[in-house]
Amino acid sequence: MSMTIGIHRVTAIVTLIVVAASAASQDAPAVEPPADRPAVKVYLLAGQSNMEGKGAVNTLPWIGEDLEYGPLLQTIQNDDGSWREGDGVWIDFLGRRGRLTVGYGSTGSPHGSLIGPEYGFGMTVGAANDEPILLVKAAWGGKDVAQDFRGPTLGGPDGPGEFYRRTIEHLKSTIAELDQRFPELAGRRTVLAGIVWFQGWNDMVNKEKTAAYATNLAQMIRDLRTDLDAPDCPVVIGELGVHGDRAKGGMLIFRAAQAAVAEQPDLKGNVKLVRTAEFYDRIAHDLYEKDVWKGPSKERFYRIASDRPYHYLGSGKTQFLMGKAFGDAMIEMETNSPARP
Predict the structure, then answer these.
(1) Residue 47 maps to which CATH number?
(2) Domain count, the chain
(3) How high is the mean pLDDT in each 10-residue block of the chain (341 residues)?
(4) What is the dihedral angle through the alpha carbons of 259, 263, 264, 268, rounded to the nearest 10 degrees?
(5) Cross-strand bridge partners of residue 336
(6) What is the rounded distance in angstroms from the CA atom of residue 226 to the CA atom of residue 230?
(7) Which residue from 112, 104, 62, 78 is spatially nearest to 315, judged by alpha carbons?
(8) Considering the domain boundaries, does residue 8 fall inside one?
(9) Which residue segment(s) compose the domain that 117 sits in?
(10) Are 198 and 238 in contact (CB under 8 A)?
């Protein structure tokens, strides 16, 4: 057999194989694409300095000495003393991003890395969900609802407050750039699963702002739901619990204004106030009042706290427990979501 005939024969065989494969593929039933992966559940965490987070990480072990909450320590700390990451939980806090762990609080502290409620919240909702979780945190110290976070409905001629706008922008840009910021979540859909609002000091210290707070915050929540296309999104409001059960005067008036928001007819049921006063650390507060924090025995204070009362004394324990309470409330609302009119 000549080489030319051999080449023609091989070519013919290859052609037959290609034609047969093409015909077989046309006759074969269509293969369905794999089912879509679960959507990423996004939680917006917003507010002022206590949402930023002032709890020193090195005070977190103080949880372990609490008679009621002590067992929680072993759920967040490894045997070597390091802190655990959230299982399937990521976070973006204004450009600082990654797997949830400690250190996503405020920056620049002389007491080392800090946490806010995000750690307790994320660990809690992460443990309760099979879906991936993304926390988008938008918080700036020293801001009020009367102006800074004022929603567009009450915004007046200047429109919504600057930090209302920046909160919306941060959430939307994080979702739009999900694939680049979080390659592990690339290609997934997202759903806004809830909002946690933790703020109040700058409104509480002004009587006029306190008097308008219930109206301002309720409308801000409605506006957020509208602007984020999430009309039934559950919302947790963190109580301003500074001074714990010994609070008086303007603090109590302000707490009543916060509670009134969750009782408004169109918000009741999927807006929930979470009490935080019970987590305020009285032991740390008493040490602060006695000026131990600046005396020769100051290590007694800094072992369990690191800041002033309006920052919940910089207690990592308090920040974690508040975040966990926010997470428990969010899970409860998601589980028992009421039918809306």
Answers:
(1) 3.40.50.1110
(2) 1
(3) 41 40 45 65 98 98 97 97 96 97 96 97 97 98 97 91 98 98 97 98 98 98 98 97 97 98 96 98 97 96 97 98 98 77 44
(4) 120
(5) none
(6) 6
(7) 62
(8) no
(9) 37-335
(10) yes
